[in-house]
Fold each of these.
Amino acid sequence: MIGPGRARLPRGEGPWPWLAAGSVALSLLLLAGLLTLLAVRGMGHFWPSPLTLVTLEDGRQLAGQAVREERLPGGEKRERLYRTANRDLDGAIWRWVAVDEIAEESRPRDLVVLERTRWGTFQGRLLALESAAGRVEGEAAWAALQVRLQELAALRAERDRLRDEVVPLARRLDRDPEADSQLARANARIRVLQARMGGTRLVLESVDGRRLEQPLEQVLRAWRPNAMSTPQKLAAWGQGVWRFLAEGPRAANTAGGVWPAIFGTVLMVLLMSVVVTPFGVLAAIYLNEVAHQGRFTRLVRIAVRNLAGVPSIVYGVFGLGVFVYGIGGTLDEWFFADQLPSPTFGTGGLLWASLTLALLTLPVVIVATEEGLARVPDHQREGALALGATRVEMLTRVILPMTAPAMLTGVILAVARAAGEVAPLMLVGVAKLAPQVPVDGDFPFLHLERKFMHLGYHIYDVAFHGGDVQAALPLVYATALLLVLVILVLNLTAIFLRHHLRARHGALPRR
């Protein structure tokens, strides 16, 4: 009996349900605020912002995109930050301007933005396009530029395709006699394409009158943001988002896309899940169903729960010492001795990163699976045994199907943690730049020994190791949003599978 003064409140009475509901609502609002911040700051980077022509009181001019405005300390004066680009002319792409020194602001329709492979973007005016066919000026130069850029895009695509073929051919030189001739033909074709891409120059002028001759082969895209309509800007925004998702990084990760990082993150998480799930489930089955429940079993459970709190960098050091140098070094001595001292498996790679994260998330899967096994009523076990089932049949046909939702809960938690980890990956395989994904047409097709890119490390590298943090900040927001969405998609997949299994085998009552 419950003594006087300790009677429970009926469900729905008292302040606790309201406090719980308020906490859930606050958590959802904070999550929505985080996603909104990442989406606005990240996806807004791909919108063609208008260019403002600023004329100062002393007659000087600059063109740029207004980024933010701040009040100077100790006064009422304000300064505005403009992204002026033209690093090759000015040595910097940012400029602070006192608001009270601005005499006039306008948005001329002829201002051009060029995205280049070197020196970043250019902002100014297009004067002429010079090629072997002659010189074109004015609006005719702008029309000819658009046509020529489309031709260059097709040539670049073919060149990049050939370059992707060159690397596997170079690896097969020792064992394939035809690889040498195929490699020579591919290189010759690349040189022809490179020659066709050259020979055209742009004559450009900044708004302050300085001229620049720009080789067209270094220009990726060109647009006039002040002359674009809203549908045109929306189409350009969609193309920018697609390039961010489908292309590889360039310019020291401060431009281009993150496709190798997306692929590497998803592949690493899938490999980690394939490894950690059977080991975690088998360990939980042994502890809960097979092992004698005594002091030793309790000590093992305490150790497993303590491992869940070990800092992730410690797992990275363990993976570096045991997996990379220990197992990987031994494999190199046994099977790749002719390639030493250049290691094959004795260096960081996708396999060792997946195993390290599997070890890191193993306690989570074990604990979640044990909780599911403990919730299965004993009469389910006794009934199966009484009907003539063996212990193995009882486990595989009765207990495990009812525990599957709890197993998937552990996998969901493991995926959420592993996808966002960065510290251990820095030691066991992640790379700053790996433009080629670890999958190609050469046997064994999936190359587990190669390094890979990761969205979390990409965020860290761009935010803290870039030469211009202010310029890279929008890409940090966009990559962070993408990482959250990748984790969300992986978790939703596991959640839908868990609900399917729960509906199929029946939900266990909560204790």
Amino acid sequence: MNPILILSGKGKTGRRVAAQLDAREVPYRLASRSSEQRFDWYDESTWAPTIAGAETAYLAPPVGPTGLAQAGKFIQQADGLRRLVLLSGRGVGSPGRDFAVYDGQLELENVAKASGLDWTIVQPAWFAQGFSEDFLRYHVLAGEIRLSAGTGAEAWIDTNDVGDVMTTALLDESYVGQTLTISGPRTLTMTEIADELTAATGRPIGYVDLEPEAHVAELIEQGLIQEDADAVRDLFAVIRNHRSEYVSDGVEQVLGRPARDFTDWARETAKTGVWSV
């Protein structure tokens, strides 16, 4: 078979899909700015050479409205591809999910559906690994999770579960034309997350509820551009407004096993030393 193309192959989900394909001895090709065949979402001259020789692709789009728009243009120009598995977000396109933050993601899903490709869309909850592999790790190390999530809850999912679902969707044609919604087995507020991380690390970790615009200001101070900071604020607004307080059973439906619980993930992750200070 032709190699499966993994776009954003060094990201949290792309790395896990690659590991699962390695375990199954399925050929694949990673695409990123540092790959042998350079790929850049914002340099359209890199797109066609990256696609050449691939029939199936896993696409994890860039963050923010501009990145999502570029991913849509990529799909529309993806001559030669036959099959696409797209990473989206839980709640996109659901009735009552009218937050503007979903607009770009919904448009991207619609582009995929109208592309003529055999598509599968995977909509995960927020990644638990955001606290260990992303900017939230620094909050844990500092002992304060400073976000504008209010008292809302989210069904945080282990990204390894996401990678397993993505790999199954890539290899099993029975998921063509389906949208798979996946989450962890229970919802947790940010205060409960802080308590879980306190227990896992043995250090006190608290949650500071920021007003949304104060959150944006802190994100910009940390180096985000205004557009991306606004996008992060709007994503947390979904939690703040109690619109994520439900569990999705897609992991069990696809993999035939329960999704991993946040407590188990936190305890195992703490053993790696990622939160050691």
Amino acid sequence: MPKSVLLRVKINTQSVDENAVVEQAGKKIVPESDGSYIIEFMAKELKVRKPNADDVLDDSQSTLHKTTFANPAYTKYTVFDLNGVRLGGIKGWIIPASYPKGSYIIRAEAGDLPAVTRIVNK
């Protein structure tokens, strides 16, 4: 198994509190612009709790920095169907308009950076 597996997840924090705090390994996780959270799957723990009076959420406290997924240094993006069949190269994380609706796998690669793979729905 790899030592680190980053996952983008949607968490229904409303069931806990309108301003619920998501934490992993004692550090708060800042939600992404779409409301999802990037978590470390290999940490094997995640807390969603009601906020305390002294909770201040900012990027410096985040477990994973917001650029972990969308690193501008990635130069090669390849799209696959869910069976792993390579469909071609694309520019970024957006599925081209010419592709039919559905789920796709995008793999981003660049020089010395580890490859990043995510499932994208169109």
Amino acid sequence: MRKKWLGLGLSFMLAAGIAGCGGNDNNGTSDATNGKSDGGTATPAAEKSQPVQLKYWTDDRHDQEYIKELINKFNETNGDNIQVELTVMSENYTQSVDIAFSSNQAPDVLRLKSANTSEFVKKGYLAPIDGYLTDDMKKKFGSLLIDNVNRFDGKVYSLANTGLTMRLVYNKDLFAKAGIEKPPVSLQEMVDDAKKITEVGKSEGIYGFALNFKNPKQAFDRSIREILSLSGYQGLGFDMKTGQFDFAPYSQVIEYFKQMHKDGSILPGAETLDIDPLRAQFAAGKIGMYLSFSTEPGVYKDQFPTEINWAGALAPTLDGQIKGTSEIVSAGTWLGISAKSAHQEAAWKFMQYMYGDDVLKTYHEKGFGIAIVPSIVEQAKNPDTNGMEGFLVGDHDSLWPAAPSVTPEGSNYADAFFKYMISDGDLKTITADLNARYNAALSKAVEKGEFTVTPNPAFDPSKPQGE
């Protein structure tokens, strides 16, 4: 595990939220309230005289047993007569929060993610926590306060816990079978390796590469995003130096993906493949490699147990040279306090307990998420989950400034590039069209006051935190 952390000093500021990776933001209808259903509600301790009752809502299911244990312990040991009730959601989480706030039934504490924090702040759902932060907490989390992620208009609404790293996931046995000694470091090597694996395994239904192309944006955001950030470019098509969208680097990566498709190295039917069916095929030893998040070790431990010999490695870059850092995504947020809570001080005491060193350290060690808080990274042991060692935060991982999320007229970049990848077209024309439409959408958003974009000509992709 990495035993150091780069300080955060962002000079590129945006006044709107970043849309995070969609694959990890389950939205939810309650399936565990007041002890019903699958037991997602922690049982309060024995009643005391007029306890302060807090409601905590989350859409995380993977860690609910651990969170229930923590809440039970808090309920039993806190000296302020506070009792917390946990509700775990499964679907439509954001909509459920909207309904709760509009009907004056909002929870006191909410699970926050990069995909919903900005909207919750805009809607007035969250209370700033600056006044509660002690000097020790400012020191502990200060390097991880990011504008438009957990800090908006100078006010802090949440603190970091974990983040998702992105890696190349590969079958070591298939690599060996094809005579490949190590994972590819350049995109040309990835193309060549995918072709070799397909040549030796096609008769057994084995192919060199796959992605969940049923949703091109999800597929590219878990693959090209890391390739570009390691190559020195922002992974979603935005140029930090100019403050404009520029999909030219993206188009370079697409050419290599198109070549794999032309070579027949991509698993047939990938156009309709979702991520879980892809994982099932990988677990069965039918895919040589794909790119994804640090959720994969847990998937192959619990959801799709496998005996194959696999590992995670840094994604290849455009030319084999690392000129940037792999972006840690879905980082910066965890818990937040409702602006409508009648017990905000009690909510903060619970929140402060949850952000304690022992809680965060154990959260990482149990494999629920990869710690990014510097002091926790220093002291936590590696999770006891097969394959996790390849996903731990290292010297080539860091947080990037938030990029603007806009919706252009017409197709998005992923759909446009995927269409080119599986068919024909003029890539320069496609790229120019994307640049024009995305920058037009950005200009409109700036005019409406949704964003404040400040170009940073000195932006260094090898030090995106500005240290």
